[in-house]
Amino acid sequence: MRHAIRPLLVLILLAGCGDPVRDVPKLSDVQMDDTAGAAEALPAEDGTRAMGGPAEAAIEAEKGRERGGLLRLFRSRAEAAKTSEAETANGTAEAAPETSSSGGGLLAGLFSGGGGAHEKGAPDYREVGPGATLPYGEMARLCGVPAERLGARIARYPERGRGYALHDSAPGTSGPRSLFLTGFDDGCARQVTGALAIFGTPEMHEQLRYGLPSDTIPYSASDAAYERVKQQVCGTGRGKPCGRRLNRLSRDTVFVTVYERYGGDTYRNMLLHDGDVLAYDGG
Q1: Are 129 and 218 part of one and the same domain?
Q2: Distances (CA, A) of 116 to 97, 112, 141, 162, 188
Q3: Domain end: 88, 120, 144, which one?
Q4: Within this chain, do residues 75 and 114 fall inside the same structural domain, yes or no?
Q5: Which intervals of the chain are annotated as region Disordered (predicted)?
Q6: What is the pTM of this model?
Q7: At residue 83, what are phi and psi to the nearest 5 degrees?
Q8: CA dihedral for 111, 113, 119, 123, sign (positive or negative)
Q9: Which pLDDT belongs to residue 160?
Q10: 54 and 135 share one domain
């Protein structure tokens, strides 16, 4: 009997000398997903760790010991990931361009040829699709349509080199019809309605505008726009001719007069400069 008790006492003593936390799973023994990111250690909405199961129990069991450093490392990485994610979201929000609900809707988007946004209130702000007709005095952009589909080219300015071109949708007729101007920086044509359209040089404009009878003629939108361009290019004030820099001004500046009917007195002027429409006296 005594010989049987001794081995039992030895087993009890050995059990007492064992590791008291041997049944607690260690963090190094936990099988973790290699694809798990540091952000998975972020606390969930209910205050618990998003990382659950054996890993959570191991972390809690090792609190206060040297392995607490690893937990702090997880927490630091999680906080860094959270901060980086927030900064990325803020940067994306700041970089996102504002979009406008106006500008022609679905049809405008379908027929847009990369013309880009135009400031609201500009004479050519409106955009239309192929086949649209406009009342006399209005202007619109037509994008994504090749010049050869706009009708016959009946005039160009300047006569040589790159510049503006006038296209007639029904040449040989005398009634109002769609007329198109090309040569703009955005690649879109400008559409108007009229029976006749002609180019007018800055020199011709100054002869008419600065002549003696001009004192009784009020300034239009195209007149005012020309004065601004003339001052920038020529350095001359209101009501004064451009002078020696007129040739330079005339390279990319021209008036277009659109008549409603042949032989009629109703007309609208527009001013083109540097690949853009600066003014149109119509609606």
Answers
A1: yes
A2: 13, 8, 11, 22, 10
A3: 88
A4: no
A5: 81-103
A6: 0.59
A7: -65, -45
A8: negative
A9: 86
A10: no
Q: Which of 88, 120, 141 is the last residue of a domain?
A: 88
Residue 173, domain extent: 107-280
Assigned token pair, 188: 């879109």
Place of tokens 């008291």: 20
Query: Which of 136, 130, 134 lies closest to 151 in space, CA to CA?
Result: 130
Q: Is residue 17 part of a domain?
A: no
pLDDT tens-digit map of 52-86: 444 444 444 444 444 444 334 344 444 444 444 44
> Under DSSP, is residue 20 helix (H, G, I), strand (E, B) or coil?
coil
Q: What is the pLDDT of residue 118?
A: 67
Q: Which residues contact 139 (CB under 8 A, 6 or more apart)?
A: 123, 124, 126, 190, 191, 192, 270, 277, 280, 282
Strand order, beta sheet including 196-200: 196-200, 253-259, 267-273, 276-280
Q: What average pLDDT does the chain have? A: 73
Here the tokens at position 204 are 């011709």
| DSSP 3-state percent helix, strand, coil across the chain (nearest 5) | 35, 20, 45
218 DSSP 8-state letter:
P
Say how far apart CA 61 and CA 234 lie, in whole Å. 84
- For helices 221-234 and 202-209, angle between their N-to-C axes, nearest 10 degrees: 110
Q: Are residues 236 and 151 in the same domain?
A: yes
> Which phi and psi angles does 49 have, rounded to 5°?
-75, 140
**Is residue 242 domain-resident?**
yes
User: What's the number of domains the chain is made of?
Assistant: 2
The Cα-based distances of 76 to 41, 53, 116 in angstroms read 10, 21, 46
